[in-house]
Amino acid sequence: MMSLVFHGNLQYAEIPKSEIPKVIEKAYLPVIGRLLKEEIPFGLNITGYTLEILPREVIELVREGIAGGLIEIIGTSYTHAILPLLPLDRVEAQVRKDRELKEELFEVSPKGFWLPELAYDPIIPAILKDNGYGYVFADGEAMLLSDHLNSAVKPIKPLYPHLIKAQRGEGNVFLNYILGLRELKKAVEKAFPGKVTLEAVKNIDAVPVWVAINTAVMLGIGRFPLMNPKKAANWLRGKDDVLLYGTDIEFIGYRDLAGRRMSIDGLLEVVKALNVELSLPSELKHSGRKLYLRTSSWAPDKSLRIWTEDEGNARLNMLTPFVGEPLAFLAENSDARGWEPLPERRLDAFRAIYNDWRGSK
């Protein structure tokens, strides 16, 4: 048994706001529509903010999928905020705003919660449990690498460093890519099946999200050198109770990966080659594992540095706790601090902070 989860966020750091209609046309409508047509169950994690600006056509498709038992709505933070960087009251505000909107819009209560950027700390499960959530999605590789809790003493090394170098265009790209494929396959082999129980302030079940599996599937769909859908399926054969795909819906149909476009047809080729039953993510079995997960994210080094160390990010993180609602939600949007944010996304957050400060004077 495997599951699919699609994450949707129209505040995406690298996507211009002018492109939003195109994102909906190329990704949201064809992906959701095709999966429903093929009667394939999947989890859908769309931020509350995104739901408020999606056209009625998409909302009706989602309602159709929920009614037919094919879509499991998943909660997240309302504006894709990095929760470990927020005061606890703001964590809860983000969680509640998203949940309330989904309950009102779809008349269902999400069971699972998707951590934006899979950014986690051990107090967040308690807040989620307090607000009605039964399980969470968390980074599987960070679970494997949580045996040592102080990264200042023992930094975490990426599991496939050569592939990351190839993606960044460093050194001999093709050689790094070939070496990276070997590292990636070994990382896929490390992925264990099923949910786990996270030892936290309040224990919670978690579905591991395996970045290596996501990457292997995307390389297969994109038909990168030495990869195709059947090859990706071969890498995953024998895996059970895991997420086959658990990342951005925008990568399927709209956003290129290293210049290659992926399609829903390619993903369905992987599913067909695997010949495996697909389920809603809440139906994945529990592995019996119980473990502690360190404060982490799904960045290559599993840290929060991407959203903290840059001077602009540091300034936003310093100022955001002083912003009042409703502008706080825009100021907290993680994509103002993203991997490679566009100026307009960053300005949205700075502008919200200024407007709140000026309005309160």
What does this structure look like?
Pfam families: Glyco_hydro_57 (PF03065). Keywords: Carbohydrate metabolism. GO terms for molecular function: 1,4-alpha-glucan branching enzyme activity. The longest helix has 19 residues, at 88-106. The protein is globular, with a radius of gyration of 19 Å. It has helices spanning 20-37, 48-53, 56-67, 88-106, 124-130, 140-144, 161-167, 173-190, 211-221, 229-236, 264-274, 311-319, 327-332, 343-359, and strands at 2-8, 42-46, 71-73, 112-114, 135-139, 195-198, 204-209, 242-248, 278-279, 286-291. Helix 1 runs parallel beside helix 3 (56-67). It folds into two domains: 2-304, 7-stranded beta/alpha barrel (Alpha-Beta Barrel), CATH 3.20.110; 308-361, no CATH class. Helix content is 43%, strand content 13%. The model has no long low-confidence stretch (mean pLDDT 95). Strand 4 (112-114), helix 5 (124-130) and strand 5 form a beta-alpha-beta unit. The chain is α/β, with parallel strands linked by helices.
